[in-house]
Structure formats: structure tokens, C-alpha cells
Amino acid sequence: MQAEHWLAMPEQIRKQLAKWQENPETARLLTVDFLTQYTGERVFGFTVTNPDVPRSDKTAIWVSVPHAHEPAGTAACMNAIHQLLTGTDLAGKATGRDIRTILDTCLVTFLPDANPGGRCWAPVLWWDGTKYTNDEFWQWMRGVDPETGGMWQRVDRWRLSETTPRRRGIVYEQLNADEFVEPNRDSGSSFLRLFHQLDERYRYECFLDLHQTEFESSSFNCTHLLPIDFDRRTASQQEQVIQLTENVRLAWVALGDLARPEPAARSFPYSGDADTVKWFRSTWGEIDTRMPRLTVEVQNNSTTTPPEAQLQLSETAIWTILETFANARVGGNIQVY
Q: Can you give the C-alpha Rg of the chain in angstroms?
């Protein structure tokens, strides 16, 4: 994998944004919003669409990467944005996608990196299993426990004034001099604040979250997680989520040996933890009631899924969702919650 085609660090994203904005043709298709973190890094929302087509004739889709230790989704977003804007990928190869139809029928907001302040601390551009064991990787993710020397705890929000890990985990966003949050578990995060800000403007109809996990002791390297309280959704809502996840799974299968998808989406993995369920219901309840929210998981920090595979699996999920809604618009068979 060539580093110049894997844009995941904040500086890389800023440089690529400058190139897009310098070109009148690409700038016309791109709207840029951002929030500035306490650390000074900007959390960007890149909205790509044909501005000549009314919003009422398009499906609004949100695509995001909440976690700083999961960079493949960021690289996939940046490559997808470049193809939508230019017709070629970051390596200069023609996209092969029906970009015009997607731009005419979809409004897509990408949040490639919800926590650049955390990503800056990552010791590598990607996690490929060659430099760090998973135990070491998890210590970079959550931090180092001052007593055990192992991985520190997972919490939604914590304070330096109350507890201090030996090394802070890059997953946490620093809100101020004292407080830190995990972006997808706290409404005070830049991730969720920017989503709600832009959701008021665009009113999204599908939410795609790109994640990575390690798939330890597993033969699989990609899957979906169903949203919390999936069983409380209406039959039609459940059907739409399952259909979208199945479309992505089949697209992964079409990649051949590169993809090893689980045969069906997993249920919400923390249903036995009352505190975690409470956090997720508070954070995601309204969103999950209103639109299909898809959580993609691609293998991280493993030699069996190298960086180029991580990127392709993540990007395949993006294109599948965009093309599904674009084709539905063209066919006149669009359904939303």
C-alpha cells in the first residue's frame, strides 16, 4: 500500500482539501463544514453532491469514521470523495462508478475522521499486525493502565482530575483541559455535535458508520453490527437494514479471497452491559428510530488483512450504499423510514 494513496492523518486530509478547493470544478461539488477540537484540529464534514439538483430529489446519506485507531475508513472516505469529485481515484485510475448518477440522486456527507486530535498520536499510518501485537495495539487505543501496565479502561467520559492513565488512549477526544470522551458514546463529542448540526440542514435518511475490529481467533475479516434495539423497530425498518447489510455482504463476496464476511449481521454486542446499553440508547435512540444506521466492521491490526484490503473492504461498503440509493432513485423505488 502506498502511503500517498492512504490519506488518514489530519495533515494529509488538510492538504487534499486544499487541492479540491483550488479546482473550481471540484470545489463546485463540495461543501465543507468543520468544528475545531480543543487540541486545535478540525473535524471536517465534506458534503458532495450536484448542487443543481434540488435536495428534494436526492437521498441524504451520512458516512463517518468515529474512532482514531480505525484509519481504514478514513482512507476509504478520502478515496471515495476524490472519485466523486474527479472521476478518478487517488492513484489516478478511472473510477468505473456511475459518479454522475450518484451526484444527481444523492447528497453525501463524509466525516472521515471524527477525532483528528487522537489520530495525531497514532504511531503508525495504518495498523497491519507487523509492528504491534493486539495487546500493544489496545494499549494505544485505550491507554496504558498505571497499575497493571495493560490496557486501560473503556469509559464514555473521564477526567484527568479524577484518574490518570500512564498513557492516554488515542480513541478519546479531549474536550477541555480536564475531560475526555469516546466520540460515539457522548453527545459532547465533535463527532455527534457536527452530525446534529448538519442533520438539521440536510435531514439524513441513511447513516453509515465505518469501524474496525481485530477479529481475533476468527476466520472472518468483515461484518455488520445491528443497531441497539433493532428488535424494537418495525418490520419494514428491520427489513431495510437487513437488505442494506446484505447488499454490502454480497459486494464483499464478489471481491473473492480478499473478503471473508460473516454470513449475517451481528446483533448489538453489548446488550448484557446495562451502562453501555444506556449510553447507546441515549446517543443513538432517535437516530435509529428515524433512519437505517449501518455499522461496518473491517479487520484491523492483522497480517491476514493488509492495508490495501482494509481500504477496499471499507470503500466497498461506501459504494454499495451509495449505489443502492442512487439506483432506487433512478428506478423510482426509494424507501425511507
A: 19
Domains of the chain: 3-120+184-331 (3.40.630.10)
Q: How far apart are CA 104 and CA 101, in angstroms?
A: 5
Give dist(CA 49, CA 270) in Å, integer. Answer: 36
Phi first, then psi, for residue 67 (nearest 5°) are -110, 135
Question: What DSSP string describes 13-80?
Answer: HHHHHHHHHHSHHHHHTEEEEEEE-TTS-EEEEEEE--TTS-GGGSEEEEEE---TT-THHHHHHHHH
What digits encode the pLDDT tens for the residues 138-183? 999 999 999 999 999 988 899 999 998 999 999 999 999 999 999 9
Cβ neighbour number for residue 307 with a 10 Å cutoff = 21
Residue 265 DSSP code: P
Q: Say what the pTM is.
A: 0.96
